[in-house]
Amino acid sequence: MRAEQSGSMAIRGRAAAGAAAVVLVLAGLGTGLMPASAQAPAPAVDGAEVFASSCAGCHGASGEGGLGPQLAGNADLANSALVVNQILFGGEIMPAFAPMLTDEQIVAVSNYIRTSWGNTNDTPTTLEEVTQTRTEGGPASAG
Ligand code: HEC
């Protein structure tokens, strides 16, 4: 009787330890995944969010312009290469965003400004284009 009881207690103890281990593993997964999904670019980056946090200060929340030129109804934005170069490498006043934004964020923000505020585009900026411009273009080749 005694042996049986302590045996079943041991089993219960092991089951409890197992459950605790599962909880710990799940908690570990949770804490491991949450910062990653908060920081790493999600598969679908929100171009409007990138614009609001990185560009609106100079170009206006609705692309109306400010320190930077107006982007609303701006015919230059039809040219994806111009936009991608401007974002990656900056200009006289505009900072280069190559060190600050991922290629995915640049694709998203480029397509956002190129299709917002009356701008229309049937030639979207592609990830390939941004990656290639980042590696091959730049201040060195632009002068
Ligand atoms: C510090 C202010 C500033 C910030 C921040 C800024 N820009 Fe600019 N942007 C400018 C200025 C000024 C110009 C004009 C060229 C120059 O002097 O740099 C410009 C030019 C441009 C142009 C070319 C417009 C044209 O008519 O040819 C585009 C496109 C553009 N910016 C997009 C962006 C995007 C997208 C972001 C955010 C990722 C951004 N800018 C952030 C100031 C800024």
Low-confidence stretches: none
Which whole number gives the mean pLDDT?
82
Oligomerization? single chain
SS class: mainly alpha
| Distinct ligand kinds | heme C
Q: Based on DSSP secondary structure assignment, what is the total number of beta strands?
A: 0
Largest sheet: none
Number of domains: 2
How many helices? The count is 7
Structural shape = elongated
Q: Can you tell me the CATH topology of the largest domain?
A: Cytochrome Bc1 Complex, Chain D, domain 2
- Nearest-angstrom radius of gyration? 26 Å
- The proportion of residues forming helix, as a percent range, comes to 55-70%
Beta-strand fraction estimate: under 5%
CATH architecture of the largest domain: Orthogonal Bundle
CATH class of the largest domain: Mainly Alpha
The first-to-last residue Cα distance is 89 Å
CATH superfamily of the largest domain: Cytochrome c-like domain
List the main descriptive attributes of the protein structure presented here.
mainly alpha, Cytochrome Bc1 Complex, Chain D, domain 2, 0% strand, binds heme C
